[in-house]
Sequence to fold (337 residues):
Amino acid sequence: MGEAPEVFYINGFPKFGHETEQHLTDDPNHDCSWYEEVIDDDLKWSFALNSVLHRGISDYQEIALLDTKRFGKALVIDGKMQSAEIDEFIYHECLIHPPLLCHPNPKTLFIMGGGEGSAAREALKHKSMERVIMCDIDQEVVNFCRKHLTVNREAFAHKKLDLVINDAKAELEKRKQKFDIIVGDLADPVQGGPCYQLYTKSFYENILKPKLNANGIFVTQAGPAGILTHTEVFTSIYNTIKQVFKYVMAYTTHVPSFADTWGWVMASDQPLFIGAKEMDKRINARINGELLYLTGDWFQSSATMNKTLSTSLQNETHVYTEENARFVPGHGVAYRL
Fold:
């Protein structure tokens, strides 16, 4: 038995009562380092690294940009995988295109979060789009994504993109205009993180919905939606949005770099479902370039839940509030400091 591998914390944090959610391990038996993420108290997963491109802590979040052997460049915030180069198209196509395709003629879009630029990139593929506002709270995240994620350089430089560094809640409150689409491309709600207030009923009802046009559509990422993880926040987010909008649709798919099935929730006061054939027609007519994942048939199937998830969604009673929030495992900077 050799000595245990030395542990290097990505941002230099010691342990704060809980095991730090992210660290690097040098493996003496292999010519590489490994990144380890805590999925839950009794579950971790790890993947081999080529290098660490960036480590740091902003005013809001722990940040790491890793070059992984399996998934390419990977953005990790507060110990949670946010996006990986090899499969981020799955997450971002599922987030952006369903609401834009269900809308009759989307022209204006507001992204809450989305600092890496991928959500804006997908939105700007739509020929009808006139203005995309991307509002991220963290200048440091935006800066190093702009520098390192070359796939999004055109999006960051696009003349239709308006990049704003601000809290999305404050930004929506002060703006007078309304939008066709509002997107929640936010980090998962963790204790001490900057985002959980943007999953609450009061935010949806009092701030977000009044900023949608009459036929506007809201969509948000809604966290893990696997058979064992969907009750962490997914069902609660769905039920909370149901209290505010007339038509609400949940849909899911597997994202390999997230090590789970993932969920999204789309909502409007106008009917959302347009049918698989109509969606395919709109994809061909409205979008510049070819989508890699989304089709009409797939989207229709993605909203069909297995028995366990369907029952959980129907029976969920929790409403997300600031005083009674749910969180995924892990902790943000504010919790640790």
About this structure: The two ends are 37 Å apart (CA to CA). The longest strand covers residues 43-57. Residues 88-102 form the longest helix (15 residues).
